[in-house]
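Students often ask why we bother predicting the structure of a whole assembly rather than each chain alone. The short answer is interfaces. A chain on its own may look different once its partners are present, and contacts between molecules only exist in the joint model. In this exercise we take two input lines together and write out one structure for the complete complex. Read the inputs first and try to guess which parts will touch.
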Amino acid sequence: DAGITQSPRYKITETGRQVTLMCHQTWSHSYMFWYRQDLGHGLRLIYYSAAADITDKGEVPDGYVVSRSKTENFPLTLESATRSQTSVYFCASSRLERDEQFFGPGTRLTVL
Amino acid sequence: KQEVTQIPAALSVPEGENLVLNCSFTDSAIYNLQWFRQDPGKGLTSLLLIQSSQREQTSGRLNASLDKSSGRSTLYIAASQPGDSATYLCAVSNYGQNFVFGPGTRLSVLP
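Now the answer. The structure tokens for the assembled complex follow.
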């Protein structure tokens, strides 16, 4: 099906482990985004990408790494997971900058 | 820095009632404003996008208005249904900046 997908949907890991969250979109949208959603903080932008091989920091980038070698994929890596990174992570895409955004179903990550 | 607020945080109405959700923003030089709904445990679903040059957008029973001078947008839901129960978020983008999200309004429509 066309759209934006995320995997895994649920993940439990331990402090210090590396974790990669995957995001794939089939619309060939130029822009892709990673957000985290936490009670009391709402949705906050982690990283975004304007095109393949172009990425930039958002509001809360510390502890995260992104790459975008292909237009359709935008993986998010937690290099050494911490408990404070327990959250729900959403990937989104848009055709143009500041255009209508479309969200994936989210990944619920728990760091023990 | 743009700040977005949504009041009330929660709202409960009987089925069939018309209702208005509010979104306020501090920097009126916006580019776009987008309304979403989020069901529990799900992602965000785009409802309406209003460009800065527009005053309102309509989709079915939903109507979103934008008043940049007062820093406000409203989402009007006509003839509410239990299926409308969800959290509604607004997000605002300014020139040169990404979208900033409000905290959301949790809507319950009672049968």
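Check your guess against this: Chain A has a mean pLDDT of 95.
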